[in-house]
Amino acid sequence: MSVKDIAQDTINAAVWSACDTFRGTVDPSIYKDYVLTMLFLKYVSDVWQDHYDNYKAEYGEHPELIEEMLKNERFVLPARANFRALYEQRHAPGNGERIDKALHAIEEANIGKLRDVFQDISFNSTKLGDEQQKNDILRHLLEDFAKPELNLRPSRVGTLDIIGNAYEFLIKNFASTSGKKAGEFYTPPEVSALMAQLMDPHAGDEISDPTCGSGSLLLKVGRLIRERSGSRKYALYGQEAIGSTWALAKMNMFLHGEDNHRIEWGDTIRNPKLLDSEASLKHFDIVVANPPFSLEKWGHEGADTDKFSRFRRGVPPRTKGDYAFILHMVETMKPRTGRMAVVVPHGVLFRGSAEGRLRKQLIDENLLDIVIGLPEKLFYGTGIPAAILVFRKKKADEKVLFIDASRGYEDGKNQNFLREKEDLQLILDTVKARANVDKYAYLASPAEIAENDYNLNIPRYVDTFEEEEEIDLMAVRKERLELKAELARLEEQMAGYLKELGYE
């Protein structure tokens, strides 16, 4: 194991251990925001101190030079807003108020990057108990993050990836313990990796996620570009409706060093905020999303008068918002390079009425490219199987590739997992080949889909039926007679033993 691996494992274990301060006292859905925010505060404090010490060693006799060099940092850390100052006062009353003031000072000093990020989190909240309990909890939290394992100075832990990975590790673990709400802020990493690779991103791409949660899916697409080309020439765009989750996304981007991003806070359907200079919907090379499944109150009341004409093909059902997100995403694809991948419940593939008409329209326009059926229990907060739909503005042909990947996975205690080689690579190889694979994939023509009344239910196209081996009834009869004879022999032998023992 390399030093980097040891550092990552050590940091992950230490930040997860810090959650013990809250367990049994505060619900995980609440304390996740406190732990993640403290990790952010500790990291920026350690980076600032590390750089300050380096500059002091070099320009010790010239404090004004140190100040000038610090102005070139990615962020500004006000003097009394650093973690060390808060830690030194941890035994005094008012920990919650001091931490809140520090966060707001950091926000004000970095308004362009961190505006409103901390407005939904208060360490002085009564959610943490009365004043005494709150002060004790926060003292323990400060002490947890002051441990040597959580010395996050770049000179010790190296790249941003380690800190970003620790943040993602925490988010993933919170998602696995947060029940139904988990899907609101996190997409499983292997599903994000699959969607990123399906989109085949390149340097120069503009990438959007209109329901970005904590930003993990956007980060996966950006990371794939860096791994392939070493380039950071791309831009990430996202919108998130829940304020606390939007704040997680902003901090997540910061901790991954993704400065070329724009993450907006608001309801994508009712109030889309990713607009261009002419106040029209901005278009993107890649659009990816894992929207809330079958959202009941999605904004039906304003769909008929939508000023962006997103529902010109028809209005989705009042109590199921799946196609509202799909139509929004379709409208934001660039005319030539636009492609999108969206996670949907299987009902999207076959439900009738308004959804059936919308499905027909999208297929007739030759926008739908691939339908991938995923295994059950992949997503946090729901056990139902889902599918990934891939749309393209410029397709290779008029056909739709159906893939039944529902049987390829590794069992987990609470969640199932897609394995990298056996499952993910098989899907990607099948997409690349774009051909029929017995009991796994089928390339359907428009005529075949029309013949099925535009029903996209995967079993209509991919036959996974396995013929059962023929039963030789005569052999079964012979075996049965042999067993009966053996039973009679044993019964007779048992009767003899009982007689010898005097029971008969």
Would you write up a description of this structure?
It catalyses: a 2'-deoxyadenosine in DNA + S-adenosyl-L-methionine = an N(6)-methyl-2'-deoxyadenosine in DNA + S-adenosyl-L-homocysteine + H(+). Keywords: Coiled coil, Methyltransferase, Restriction system, S-adenosyl-L-methionine, Transferase. One of its GO terms (biological process) is methylation. This is site-specific DNA-methyltransferase (adenine-specific). InterPro entries: D12N6_MeTrfase_N, DNA_Adenine_Mtase, DNA_methylase_A-5, DNA_methylase_N6_adenine_CS, Restrct_endonuc_T1M, SAM-dependent_MTases_sf, T1MK-like_N_sf. It contains 18 helices and nine strands. The N and C termini lie far apart (71 Å). 45% of the residues lie in helices and 10% in strands. By secondary structure, the protein is of the alpha/beta class. The chain is globular, with a radius of gyration of 29 Å. 39% of the residues are buried. α11 (216-229) links the parallel β1 and β2 (235-240). α2 (28-59) runs antiparallel to α9 (160-176) and α10 packs parallel to α16 (420-433). Strands 3-2-1-4-5-7-6-8-9 form a nine-stranded mixed sheet, with helices on both faces. The protein has helices spanning 3-17, 28-59, 63-70, 83-88, 95-109, 111-114, 131-145, 154-157, 160-176, 189-199, 216-229, 243-255, 322-331, 347-350, 353-364, 420-433, 446-451, 473-500; strands spanning 206-209, 235-240, 261-265, 286-289, 339-345, 368-373, 386-392, 400-404, 441-444.
